[in-house]
């Protein structure tokens, strides 16, 4: 069993102005207390109790503020702009009446029960799990986003691990944002054509705004691009997970850490937003894949990136890649992205075949007595040459010196 924690966003439904104002007040009060606490040294903060703090807020909520300011993150904070109200797991309750779910917690006007909206079909089973007790609820935060109030609830659930030997490889790139493929059989392509187009458009507008020095608009524009990329990554990761589920397989991706520095890209394609490798958030796709797979009990496995796109997935020999074509010296042809993802899927236990007889003779003839690339001498090499006794059917001594008598 794996324990998986995530946060779900629950919207308060039909929140009247009175309650919205109350939430606002609570948040203000919460922030005020937190900032007051921060003005004291950490030692004093630790000894603080709710009784010593004068506030309209309920002690359960004040307690949470004290905890927050003494936590590692709180200790580094100088001042809070806004600190949302946090309700810990013992102080809220979920209830259901008919088809409406509601959450009750202490507010300024006592304990209130406020209905919440089941916005996404994903949340329905989660809420039912919370009511039945199969899913544990943690604390939740009251957060205002775009003039709407939400409860950000953290939940922990047990997911049975799926034991599987099968693997899918997932190669990420530009022409295809992602290609997933099993060792044999059809793969899935996520083409990046329209994405490229749209990214160029984003870049163009960004430059215009930059030149016009419209920085506020620029910030907005960048956020818009980010949201759009996020949405695409969500879609792709979701489909990959579905594909993995149908194959009952773990997913292997290449470890792209540091790939920006090592992967070469010409200046021209680097400056073209459609082609640049820097702008696409592969990392976010990876994170999304990771947690979505974990929810299904599957794993995301990372393997080193070098040679995944250079070796042939059929025979393991290093071949030539020319854009989307991959050709191997043994005559195998593959689509290069598909080839890379196949390589990833069979990464473990797959290596290029070493022809022992042939390679040993090559090593001998080149005089590499202490192994390839001057590796440290092993126990065989340290033995002195004189101690060898030649065991051979062929009598070398007589061959070299025919006059020698038998
Ligand atoms: Zn081949």
UniProtKB/TrEMBL annotation:
Domain of life: Bacteria
A Pfam family annotated for this UniProt entry: Cas12f1-like_TNB
Record domain Probable transposase IS891/IS1136/IS1341: where: 155-235
Domain Cas12f1-like TNB: start-end pairs: 282-344
Keyword field: DNA recombination, DNA-binding, Transposition
GO process terms (BP): DNA recombination; transposition
One of the record's GO molecular function terms: DNA binding
Transmembrane regions: none
Family affiliation: In the C-terminal section; belongs to the transposase 35 family.
Protein name: Transposase
Organism: Planktothrix tepida PCC 9214
């Amino acid at each position: 069993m794996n324990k998986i924690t995530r946060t779900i966003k629950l919207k308060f439904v039909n929140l009247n102005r009175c309650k919205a104002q109350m939430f606002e007040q609570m948040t203000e009060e919460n922030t005020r207390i937190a900032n007051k606490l921060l003005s004291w040294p950490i030692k004093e903060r630790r000894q603080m109790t709710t009784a010593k703090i004068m506030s309209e807020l309920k002690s359960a909520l004040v307690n949470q503020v004290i905890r927050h300011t003494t936590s590692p993150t709180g200790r580094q904070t100088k001042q809070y702009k806004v600190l949302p109200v946090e309700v810990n797991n013992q102080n809220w309750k979920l209830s259901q009446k008919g088809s409406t779910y509601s959450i009750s917690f202490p507010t300024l006007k006592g304990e209130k029960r406020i209905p919440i909206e089941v916005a996404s079909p994903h949340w329905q089973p989660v809420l039912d799990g919370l009511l039945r007790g199969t899913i544990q609820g943690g604390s939740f935060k009251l957060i205002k986003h775009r003039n709407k109030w939400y409860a950000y609830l953290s939940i922990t659930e047990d997911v049975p691990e799926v034991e599987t030997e099968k693997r899918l490889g997932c190669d990420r790139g530009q022409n295809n944002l992602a290609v997933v493929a099993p060792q044999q059989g059809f793969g899935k392509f996520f083409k990046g054509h329209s994405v490229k187009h749209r990214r160029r458009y984003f870049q163009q507008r960004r430059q215009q705004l930059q030149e016009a020095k419209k920085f506020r608009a620029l910030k907005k524009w960048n956020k818009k691009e980010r949201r759009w990329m996020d949405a695409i990554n969500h879609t792709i990761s979701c489909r990959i997970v579905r594909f993995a589920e149908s194959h009952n397989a773990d997913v292997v991706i290449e470890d792209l850490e540091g790939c920006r520095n090592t992967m070469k890209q010409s200046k021209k394609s680097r400056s073209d937003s459609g082609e640049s490798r820097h702008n696409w958030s592969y990392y976010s796709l990876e994170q999304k894949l990771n947690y979505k797979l974990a929810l299904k009990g599957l794993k995301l496995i990372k393997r080193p990136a070098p040679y995944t796109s250079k070796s042939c997935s059929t025979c393991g020999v290093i071949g030539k890649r020319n854009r989307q074509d991959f050709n191997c010296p043994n005559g195998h042809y593959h689509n290069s992205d598909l080839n890379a993802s196949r390589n990833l899927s069979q990464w473990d236990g797959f290596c290029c075949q070493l022809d022992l007889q042939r390679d040993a003779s090559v090593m001998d003839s080149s005089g590499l007595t202490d192994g390839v690339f001057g590796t440290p001498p092993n126990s065989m090499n340290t033995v002195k040459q004189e101690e060898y006794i030649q065991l051979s059917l062929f009598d070398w001594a007589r061959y070299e010196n025919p006059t020698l008598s038998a």
